[in-house]
Design brief:
By secondary structure, the chain is α+β, with helices and mostly antiparallel strands. Among the domains are: about 165-305; about 440-550, Immunoglobulin-like (Sandwich); about 570-605; about 615-645, no CATH class. The strands form 8 sheets. Strands 1, 18, 19, 20, 21 and 22 form a 6-stranded mixed β-sheet that branches. Strands 2-26-25-24-23 form a 5-stranded antiparallel β-sheet, with no helix packed on it. Strand 21 and strand 22 (about 365-370) form a beta hairpin. Helix 8 runs antiparallel to helix 9 (about 610-635). The longest helix has about 35 residues, at about 570-605. It is elongated. The protein starts with a helix and ends with a helix. It binds 2-acetamido-2-deoxy-beta-D-glucopyranose (4 copies). One 2-acetamido-2-deoxy-beta-D-glucopyranose (NAG) binds near residues 7, 11, 323, 324 and 325.
Length: about 650
């Protein structure tokens, strides 16, 4: 939407103030969600008994341990369409691969997993995970491992990797990575540390030396890597503007230096200037694209605007529109800055949409909308504020990965959170279409269930990141993937779909279809884990089919859910074979038993040396008999056996089968 249209729309909506109405009945959860913020490393014990309540576990993707949502929809019909984007983090200074939940995730509007970026990004933190328009295409963009801004295409392949190019030792900062100018340039915040100049110290009445974290940003041409604009705070934002910390002298030498600005959001105005959020100044700066000077300050110690409100420790400032008289901005007012001179500026965090009147000498600000924390608590650090295309607002509160959505009148219509330890810096909602380059993952297991020798095969399938799958179909194939016959089909049931059908298929292939019936992609040929009882008729029939090339297959095909006809009906003929086989096994069993008994008897006889000769004669004969038994068995059933461990276990079971 054009920015001016958006501006008009938003202003026409008028002032929407959400009343503080905690919407959660469970007092323990409510207290916990209001909890303070800490930057401790998040530890999750994947073997804890309650783990599976809070995390999804998939048969096909043991590498994914995606968190589950606690969701409350207050007015379902008002909720905007779109997927949820977030990236739970483990440790802002993460050095080693994290758990199966660390990194970017996409969920659908019911909290069902769509994509886990954990396998692709090796379980490392990602920040500012969202959809960006890059050269006219929607891509996933994020800051990865504090080192690069990366772009991932809709096939989930790495498209671009960008870094700051700073000759002063500046490093990419974790907060914000956005594309501008129709996705042709990248905006990147950076941080660098050095000692303050004497003039800066004098201006701030600081009579001691100070190491300072300075901030800056770059705008890159993505195609050429050229730095189009490079700005640094030193000499432009004075040390006296900071509200951090209540003991600045100490802070100059702790944590590597005084974090006097803490720049955490960067956006571009339609006029080409930049909007910079300085959390530790409680201020937003408009920075001139011509000379890098500050055009105006909103908030903080030197605000240029008259406003009957206040904010502090803000995050995610964005330009929402601009015309010749007004500028519309939005941000999350955390209202909380730990170790600041004044820690709290309000009794809860809230999202703000503000209209700035910039055409007068005495500039003014007006609150257009305010969205309070759903529990009346704080987003003590981090957080996000997003305006959705239908006029709804989507706010991320970091702790618990809690986010909430408000309709255009400011009513709370949706809130959702993960388990307490799991924090996400920003939460977003976007439309998204994913067509993964990787193939669907499938696993097939056959189980022989009862003494009737029936076999049930169960196939699980998933496709990490695929958004368009409506139906899954399982096909029976030969080992090389030829002779596909439909076995079962099922609507997609979530990230992972289970299809069960009676009968046994040694090799299967699973194929995805969209809602129009168009094939989207299929798995590799998957070998079914064999049932324990290999001598049942279904297995024998299947083995025969697998061996005979080009033979038709007379299975009854029906959707798994409604199918009551066995895939491999146990025919009278096969019963005959099974019965004969049983009798034979009995006979073999009796023979073997007899031979063993005789062998034991013979062993006793060896006590007397003069009887050894006759014992050895008997033993030779026994060995010969046993060989014969083995050969007979193989000839009888003509089963081609895979010479593996599993097989040996299974063939031993044949003696049990003979009792039937
Ligand atoms: C700018 O937008 C504001 C808010 O929609 C509106 O009140 C004002 O009249 C607009 N100014 C101009 C010059 O269009
Ligand atoms: C729910 O949202 C719909 C659509 O925005 C609206 O018409 C309706 O009044 C809302 N219901 C309540 C109870 O707020
Ligand atoms: C961005 O794209 C739109 C639509 O394709 C076009 O009208 C506009 O001029 C482009 N702006 C820039 C800065 O390239
Ligand atoms: C064996 O098969 C019969 C006929 O199909 C069925 O009625 C019976 O329940 C089966 N027995 C078991 C133990 O499944």
């Amino acid at each position: 939407m054009h920015r001016l249209e958006l501006l008009t729309l938003l202003v026409s909506l008028g002032y929407a103030h959400v009343l503080r109405t905690p919407s959660i009945d469970n007092p323990a959860l409510l207290e916990a969600r209001k909890d303070g913020y800490d930057d401790n490393i998040v530890k999750i014990d994947a073997n804890a008994p309650d783990h599976n309540q809070d995390f999804y576990r998939f048969v096909t993707r043991p590498d994914i341990d995606a968190p589950r949502w606690n969701i409350q929809k207050h007015n379902e019909s008002a909720i905007a369409p779109g997927y949820w984007f977030l990236a739970p983090y483990q440790d802002p200074r993460q050095k080693e691969r994290g758990g199966g939940w660390v990194g970017p995730h996409i969920y659908d509007g019911n909290g069902e997993l769509i994509w886990s970026g954990v396998p692709m990004l090796n379980g490392f933190d990602a920040f500012d995970f969202k959809v960006s328009n890059y050269k006219g295409q929607d891509m996933l963009s994020m800051i990865y491992r504090h080192e690069n801004g990366i772009l991932i295409n809709s096939q989930y392949e790495l498209e671009e990797e960008l870094d700051v190019q700073d000759e002063h030792g500046g490093r990419l900062n974790m907060h914000d990575f956005s594309l501008a100018e129709n996705g042709t340039t990248a905006l990147m915040l950076k941080t660098f540390t050095r000692s303050a100049e004497q003039a800066e110290l004098d201006a701030a009445d600081m009579e001691y030396e100070c190491r300072v974290h300075y901030y800056g940003f770059e705008e890159h041409d993505i195609a050429t890597g050229e730095v189009l604009f490079d700005w640094r705070s030193q000499g432009i934002v004075g040390l006296e503007e900071t509200v951090f910390a209540h003991r600045p002298k100490l802070a100059c030498h702790r944590d590597g230096g005084l974090d006097y600005i803490h720049a955490n959001a960067l956006d571009k105005f339609p006029d080409g200037d930049y909007l910079l959020s300085a959390r530790h100044c409680n201020a937003l700066f408009k920075i001139s694209a011509k000379d890098g000077s500050i055009v105006w300050r909103f908030g903080g110690k030197k605000s240029d605007f008259k406003w009957n409100g206040h904010f502090s420790g803000q995050h995610h400032a964005r330009v929402r529109g601009q015309n010749s008289t007004h500028t519309m901005i939005s941000f999350l007012d955390n209202a909380y800055v730990p170790s600041a001179e004044h820690v709290y500026s309000n009794d809860m965090s809230r999202g703000f949409l503000i209209a700035l009147r910039t055409d007068q000498e005495h500039m003014t600000a007006e609150t257009i909308a305010q969205y309070d924390h759903p529990d009346g608590g704080y987003a003590p650090g981090r957080g996000s504020y997003q305006t959705l295309p239908n006029g709804n607002t989507y706010v991320g509160w970091t702790s618990y990965s809690l986010f909430s959505e408000y309709d255009a009148d400011g009513n709370l219509i949706l809130e959702a959170n993960l388990r307490p330890e799991l924090k996400s810096y920003r939460s977003y909602k976007f439309p998204w279409v994913g067509h993964p380059a990787e193939l669907p993952s499938a696993r097939s297991v056959a189980v022989s269930t009862d003494r009737n020798s029936t076999v049930t095969t169960s196939v699980h399938v998933s496709w990490n990141g695929a958004t368009e799958v409506a139906t899954w179909k399982v096909y029976h194939t030969k080992a090389d993937g030829s002779s596909e016959k439909l076995l079962a089909s099922s609507p997609r049931q979530g990230f992972e779909t289970a299809l069960t059908f009676p009968g046994y298929a040694k090799h299967v292939v699973v194929e995805a279809y969209d809602s129009q019936g168009k094939a989207l992609g299929k798995s590799d040929v998957v070998k079914t884990v064999e049932p324990l009882n290999l001598y049942n008729a279904a297995v024998l029939e299947e083995d025969r089919w697998q061996q005979e090339s080009g033979k038709g297959f007379s299975a009854n095909i029906a959707p798994a859910a409604s199918s009551s006809t066995p895939l491999m009906p146990i025919s009278a003929g096969s019963f005959g074979i099974a019965f004969g086989f049983g009798i034979l096994c009995c006979a073999i069993g009796i023979l073997v038993g007899f031979l063993l008994w005789r062998a034991r008897f013979a062993t006793q006889m060896t006590k007397w040396p003069w009887q050894r000769a006759s014992y050895e004669k008997i033993k030779e004969k026994d060995d010969a008999d046993e060989t014969l038994v083995g050969e007979e068995t193989d000839q009888m059933f003509q089963k081609k056996r895979v010479p593996d461990e599993e097989h040996h276990t299974l063939s031993r079971d044949s003696s049990e089968g003979s009792e039937v």
